[in-house]
Amino acid sequence: MAEIRLRNLAHSYSRSPSGPADYAIREMDHVWEQGGAYALLGPSGCGKSTLLNIISGLLSPSHGEVQFDGKVVNALPPEQRNIAQVFQFPVVYDTMTVFDNLAFPLRNQGMNEAKVLAKVNEIAEVLELHPLLRRRASNLTADEKQKVSMGRGLVRDDVSAILFDEPLTVIDPHLKWKLRRKLKQIHEQFNITMVYVTHDQLEASTFADKIAVMYGGQIVQFGTPRELFERPSHTFVGYFIGSPGMNLIDVQPCAGGVRFNETVLPLSSALNQQVAEMPAAKLKVGIRPEFIHVWDGPNEDALCAEVVHVEDLGTYKIITLRLDGQLLKVRLQEDQVVPQQQAYLSFPAQWLMLYADDILVGPKAQGGQP
Amino acid sequence: MKVHNNKAWWLVLPVFLLVAFSAVVPMMTVVNYSVQDIFDHSTRYFVGVDWYKQVLQDTRLHESLLRQFIFSTCVLLIEIPLGIAIALCMPTKGRMASLVLIVLAIPLLIPWNVVGTIWQIFGRADIGLLGWSLNSLGISYNYAANTSDAWVTVLIMDVWHWTSLVALLCYSGLRAIPDVYYQAARIDRASDWAVFRHIQLPKLKSVLLIAVMLRFMDSFMIYTEPFVLTGGGPGNATTFLSQTLTQMAIGQFDLGPAAAFSLVYFLIILLVSWLFYTAMTHNDKTR
């Protein structure tokens, strides 16, 4: 059990990195608290797996420190870090039975056989591997093998944390859901810190209490699924989380707010002041498709937009609109009236986010890290 | 019956002819010799299994068969573990890796009778580096006169010549193991021995199967190198099956018994190879 703290951590695979582009992990500080269920979410190649391998000790970072409970562990090899890691593709020891596979990490630390038997049975119970215990691991299906891989991580009671590197990639969709539930249960049962790497937002939000979104080698936001949805602190989070992602519009400052083309969006005086302080910044406004208000008819506050396309996705509809030359997506529930040709919109002030150089302007979401 | 489908058999004909001329016809010639006593074109007698009986009772053949089994067993017991050990020690990347690969490949490129000649000279007590050095160190060594010296020299020569093949096969097998297995093993705190026993060795199985079969068959058919090195001596101490067979067929021109013996020889190799194959793939089939 441990709190994992990353301090000034950076990593480059190149021996003589010359610029930020050479870094797989750009300098970051981050804390995974003891007992949390975390997801590390991001697109392929954003540095998720690199970060995971640094935590487990398979990779040694170019800069900075990894601390477990305040103790620097940079110099410790993975076998001394009390970390379990489950990889994207199942790793089983082919010549052993399922039982011996699960017992392997325990026997390696010299546990007596009676205790090994008890632990293995306990984990086999949780993972529903009991009927397979006597089978040779080489003859299992992919998802059974992955359960064995996970089991080897879970069976050790000395682990500080379990790291999952997209563990459900090879699993059938209907089993994915079951295994994810299983992991969640195990987390609740054993109170182990778990970090779950994925590029699937649904997987991240069903598993984790808090999600760290990674982009370009940095954690751009760390928060609950709700925080990520409601107050993305980086345009990437807005775009990556949600289906469809956030509407992002390039804007210029003007009197009392910002504008694009002829449309002026008023801002609060606090925000206006902040905008005035950074004249060189590239500004964007963002609003979730769910939060754009669609009026039934013309209205004083409403902006008039042209309906371009309506996509019916069963329980909801996605409408593409053109507002003053700018395309917007709006998500309507099935009971809402679908506008024909013309739609009247307004952007509720609390859902309208302003970004300067892709970073949220205004009070940050809790735990957010620009 | 779909008669029209039989035309397809014509497509198999080229392969059939090729196999016939490369294997079946020569083999049938041998079979032909093994069941007849042939003097010339017109004078021949069918003798049935007489040659086989004679060959199977020939003590000279029994002795060389025994020597042959001991030799092949020693070859496998030395070359397979040594080859694996070398492969495990080989560097995996950089210029050293290419250098080591080239050095290991050199013995494999040398013609067999040259290998025999190299060791023949190398081991000589008067002018050979090895023989002369051993003798000046006070160790009496003479492969031409002493049976055990001759055996050791033939064995070392074979190890020198062929361990590279096992090492190179194992090296390629080791490179094919994904990194993630080693990573998982480190996470599981596996010892180096456990990594070898539970990851490397099982993953090497298919290349080891090839290595064992090749080294068994080759060593069981060894001819040129001991022939050049010791000529089968001292006495008959290093006379292996091929040499006995050659003596019988060409030296004494006993074509009938030689043909019968060739077939027995072939069947022994086939049988032992099959045993190895079955033993090594046995576990894959059990569930």
Automatic annotation (TrEMBL), chain A:
Pfam families: ABC_tran, TOBE_2. GO terms for cellular component: ATP-binding cassette (ABC) transporter complex, substrate-binding subunit-containing. CDD domains: ABC_Carb_Solutes_like. InterPro entries: AAA+_ATPase (IPR003593), ABC_transporter-like_ATP-bd (IPR003439), ABC_transpr_FbpC (IPR015853), ABC_transpr_MalK/UgpC-like (IPR047641), Mo/tungstate-bd_C_term_dom (IPR008995), NA-bd_OB-fold (IPR012340), P-loop_NTPase (IPR027417), Transp-assoc_OB_typ2 (IPR013611). This is Carbohydrate ABC transporter ATP-binding protein, CUT1 family. Residues 4-241 form the ABC transporter domain. The keyword Ion transport does not apply. Signal peptide: none annotated. One of its GO terms (molecular function) is ABC-type ferric iron transporter activity.
From TrEMBL, chain B:
GO terms for cellular component: plasma membrane. One of its GO terms (biological process) is transmembrane transport. Gene3D superfamilies: MetI-like. It comes from the Bacteria. It is a multi-pass membrane protein. It is found in: Cell membrane. Residues 65-276 form the ABC transmembrane type-1 domain. Keywords: Membrane, Transmembrane, Transmembrane helix, Transport. The chain crosses the membrane at residues 69-90, 97-122, 150-171, 206-224, 258-277. Belongs to the binding-protein-dependent transport system permease family. This is Carbohydrate ABC transporter membrane protein 1, CUT1 family.
